Amino acid sequence: MYKYLREDVKKLKPYQVNEIKYKIKLDANEGIDWMDGLNKYPDDTCKSLREKLGERLNRKPSEILIGNGSSELIGYIMNAYLEIGETVLSIWPTFSMYEIYTIINKGKYRKFPLKDMVDLDVTAFIDLAKESKAKLVIISNPNNPTGTVISMEDIRRIISSLDAMVILDEAYIEFSDLPIEDYTREFENLIVLRTFSKAMALAGIRLGYMIAHENTIDCVNRIRSPYNVNTLTQDVGIKALDKHEEIDKNIEMVKSERERIRSYMESKGYRPLPSQGNFLFFKGTKDLGSKLANKGVLIRGFGGELEGYYRLTIGTVEENNGFIKGFEEVLNETEQSY
Ligand code: PMP
Known about the structure:
Layout: H1 7-10, H2 47-57, E1 64-67, H3 70-81, E2 87-92, H4 97-104, E3 108-113, H5 122-131, E4 136-140, H6 152-161, E5 165-169, E6 190-195, E7 208-212, H7 214-221, H8 231-240, H9 244-267, E8 279-283, H10 288-294, E9 300-301, E10 309-313, H11 317-336
Parallel strand pairs: 2-3, 2-4, 4-5, 5-6
Antiparallel strand pairs: 1-7, 6-7, 8-10, 9-10
Helix pairs in contact: 2-8, 3-4
The structure holds 4'-deoxy-4'-aminopyridoxal-5'-phosphate (PMP).
């Protein structure tokens, strides 16, 4: 949406790459090929990948922007829209990079706590967004690290009530029961972010994308770094989009493992939150993380107000069994030490 665009970015034109057909290409100071044509800069606008994704999503390529991971796109969106001192509102707890990107962009970050780390009081959230004149509202749905979800009905209420850009970060949507449908044609102030890092299990290639009205894509594209997505990543991304079956099988496996590990944790007296991501979030003892790490099992611990909370990623059956084994040992050792 042009309305919310930073004033100085309104005058900015995106970096233009020559797209004229050629026989001999001597316009970009590229070196001489010695490895698989990688001497050439990548396709700047990721044309083929956007076309393929567009077919999958039933969107025009002009409604999609590709990033070096969805993290890069979060930064770009703030670059494009946030003036110094303007407010970014999110829920708490959530993905820590939202606050970091806000600070980098000299914005003011406000957090609205989820009730018992699960439920969102939508009316109060909307009130705070209005009161703080939030320019950007960013929501991870399902939410990292809690795994909890906000219903699409509530999300729609937030988008339609606010005079702000709403960024819906759907990094984990494939693991959830939420509809994989975006409402970017209905709401011009909505940006949907997705990634290849989670359900597609390709975090190593760094690939994410945003879906939005084409005016919004134009806005964010103005501040995008040239050639932000490398050639190898674009190629793998395109190939991956044809591998539905393997990916769907993995998602189903993760979902059923998530429930198995949840039952196990509950049988041990722990209470993981109702997660719809590929992870479980729970409260443990302060030293659980370090004790597990001593056994070679890494889970994510948190500090500050989340001290004692942990996020466990759901892996393969073998990896999860490895976690259970390590966890059992830690529990037994703790009992013996009393
Ligand atoms: N959004 C959320 C909610 C995340 O948890 C993550 C990764 N932890 C990202 C975005 C970033 O993903 P990527 O940059 O790998 O696409």
